[in-house]
Amino acid sequence: MCLGIPGKVIETYREHDMLMGKVDFGGVFKRICLEHTPSAEPGQYVIVHVGFSLQVIDEAEAQLVFSFLKEMDELGELETPEP
Amino acid sequence: MKFQSEYRDPVAAQKLLQAIARTATRPWTIMEVCGGQTHTIVKYGIDELLPPQVELVHGPGCPVCVTPLELIDQAIAIAARPDVIFCSFGDMLRVPGSRTDLFATKAAGGDVRIVYSPLDCLAIAEKNPEKTIVFFAVGFETTAPANAMAVWQAKRRGIENFAVLVSHVLVPPAMTAILSSPTNRVQGFLGAGHVCSVVGYEEYEPLAQRFQIPIVVTGFEPLDLLEGIYRCVRMLEAGRIGVDNQYARAVQRSGNPGAMQLINDVFETTDRKWRGIGVIPASGFRLRPEYQAYDAQRRFQVHQLQVLESDECISGVILQGVKKPKECPAFGKTCTPEHPLGATMVSSEGACAAYYNYGRYRSSQTTNV
């Protein structure tokens, strides 16, 4: 739960007065709160902790970190279905 | 050799290891605080590749591991209630309480659900107005913005059938406790990169000055760790104190100010008990008074539960870096990931589980032959 997972912002929208986004984690799509990275735009990559984006990062770094987390078997939380 | 097969850039790893060996002229003990870093170190055998004069010890940076037994037992008591839907991150379900765990509570009929994000609990609350949805708000500073947002949103949207069982812990006070201990051997720290991406590292600067140590904010990939260790050894050899940032591509000195603002709006600092360590002053978060309606402990009056800690498990001294998992008589015998006696064997970020999963128990067994 401490390791942030990088994903690509696909679209952004507002919900309950929060900036939200659809984010692609290697083919797994999640609804993510983007409130703490207000500059994040579709096409950019963000680091996400438990459904919340906390940093915008560049694509190369995102790819490296994502493949490393996959290798470490640290992507399990993405499999949790939405309620 | 692990290098050739597993390191993304074995040449760079080899160069860093040679640089560390060349630089370290005497014994140094460095602690990594983050459980994710511990996982990487053990999987890649970094601690065994280092020159003998550089020792890595594993710190208490696994939120699953340090959540106190009282909170686990309170979670189980609340989750067993028929009027509750208990939600948690998945890692917490197998942590042993005094007598049982959340998985067994679920098997016995408790409505226990694994959620990806605390915001999912608000959706569950709106769909189930007749139940109270309780979220187990655990973690270090990395999960605090998400948990704070869930509470803030619940209040704003008037969702009253939602509460949080808070067990948030903070890294700098734990480092202070370790450095203040009479048994402390730690001379330098690798700071937890992802924690610092939220909070920054300004708070680490007075800590480095007070204890006259180097702290190197470090990422969690093998090359990050080797570079962090190299920078830390260089500072130790030069007698330099202060904070260095190896992970500048993801960490800024001031962290994420927006996230910090939300955390401070919802939470305030409090003394927290750490499993195996005891109470560390000002080492955790609790809800501010204006959010106490969302406090599950108050709502369900679970403060008074009596707890029963395993007398075989030595996770407390392991979490402080005083002993290694192989020094525990139960390790790999009566305590395994399938039947954990303590939380350090449950989470992939716990030192015991990392040692066990990457075959470190074999050498301990052969030494006993």
TrEMBL record, chain A:
InterPro entries, alphabetized: Hydgase_assmbl_chp_CS (IPR019812), Hydrogenase_HupF/HypC (IPR001109)
PANTHER family, A to Z: HYDROGENASE MATURATION FACTOR HYBG
Domain of life of the organism encoding this protein: Bacteria
Gene3D superfamilies membership: 2.30.30.140
Sequence similarity: Belongs to the HupF/HypC family.
Pfam families linked to this entry: HupF_HypC
Biological process, per Gene Ontology: protein maturation
UniProt-recorded name of the protein: Hydrogenase isoenzymes formation protein HypC
Encoding gene, per UniProt annotation: hypC
GO molecular function list: carbon dioxide binding; iron ion binding
Species the sequence originates in: Lignipirellula cremea
UniProtKB/TrEMBL annotation, chain B:
GO biological process assignments: protein maturation
Gene Ontology MF term list: 4 iron, 4 sulfur cluster binding; carbon monoxide binding; iron ion binding
Family, similarity comment: Belongs to the HypD family.
Name of one Pfam family that matches: HypD
UniProt-listed Gene3D superfamilies: 6.10.20.100, HypD, alpha/beta domain 2
Organism annotation: Lignipirellula cremea
Database matches in InterPro entries: Hyd_form_HypD, HypD_1, HypD_2_sf
Keyword list, A-Z: Iron, Metal-binding
Protein name (record): Hydrogenase expression/formation protein HypD
